[in-house]
Task: structure prediction
Amino acid sequence: MKIGIDKIGFYTPNKYVDMVDLAMARNVDPNKYLKGIGQEKMSVADISQDAVSMAINATKQYLPKIDIDKVGLLIVGTESSVDESKSASLFVKSALKLKASVRTFEIKEACFGLTAAIFTAYDYISTHADKTAIVIGSDIARYGLNTAGEVTQGAGSISLLIKKDPAMLSINPQTSAYSKDINDFWRPTGSATALVDGKYSTQVYLDFFEYTFKNYQKQNHVDISNFKALLYHLPFTKMGLKANNLAIANLAERDAKKLTNEFKNSIELSKQVGNIYTGSLYLGLLSLLVHAELKLNDLIGLFSYGSGAMAEFFTFNIEAGYRNEIIDPYLILNRRKRLTVAEYEKIFTESLQAPIDGQSLVSDEQAGMWYFAGTKNHIRQYCEKS
Ligand code: CAA
Result:
């Protein structure tokens, strides 16, 4: 039985900072951000967007096209959770009006969360072939103003519908996993911003990639020349480029060129959005689907990395109907408003504060989008913009 991705939804907040503006404000050569880091813009979430509202908005993109009564599993992977106890997925389930019989929970292992959700959904569909599963990665990457990580922030959500006989991509169950208890990036309970050992984090990412990629090829008798494209977790696009350069180091020129061209197709969206943690790898997948010419059965390799750290290399195959199912991500990107750095700094600082209980938050989102409207009796309220 083929199991895989049938629909992809994407959401990013309606504001961004241009990297040249940020570089000028930080007294840095803009080419460091544009070329050295590989980012052009980063989405900014104001206080009325969080992991829950973004997850709802991403899923709502394809919701009218699916039978919601068939959804048996809903998982939200996030490292920007809004509650220490209650799952983000319960708020999402309520907004999407899914049935009470759905199994739903939140899952966490840094940026690996959506990959964990996908393989949990794969196992679920293999024993519940008449059901479907919604899995979502939803995050706001916050390092802080004037930090080295500031240029690698972002916000957004990717939602996937997993089912049998998928229209877009089938998932292959063979994977190569590697985990180790390390401290490259983490966010202590109560801290709104992440702590990171930046240089160390980039080195372990590459070490984990080399190990899982080589191991996958050896165990599954697959050669790198079999891949149409390799996709990477993209905390910033230069990180993916470093991994791709390692992958193609000893390849014949023709194969190296093919993988380099597809890599360029896979980073177009991330360059405009920034890091969305759990969804980043799958924003790269969406970017590839939108920009590349793919055909049935093309083999796509994916490297998922979650700090702390857990990594896995695995593969998808392109299915015949993928192009018909693409929902244009540029409709979401092109509606964004460019912030001045002063406006971004104000929004960033406000978004770190806990809302005053009982005070309603307003949103400047477009009609139909969901937003966080504040707390009442310390209960989070989510509304659809009218
Ligand atoms: N023109 C062109 N390039 C320039 C330049 C200029 N004028 N000035 C500098 N550069 C280049 C540098 O040569 C460097 O390139 P290489 O990496 O190829 O050597 C690059 O720009 C970055 O410059 P620095 O090395 O000086 O970097 P920095 O000290 O400013 O910090 C960072 C970079 C460590 C990535 C920092 O942004 C950070 O800590 N980010 C958050 C952590 C992160 O994303 N880690 C990734 C792995 S962990 C992970 O993947 C999980 C996750 O999602 C967080």
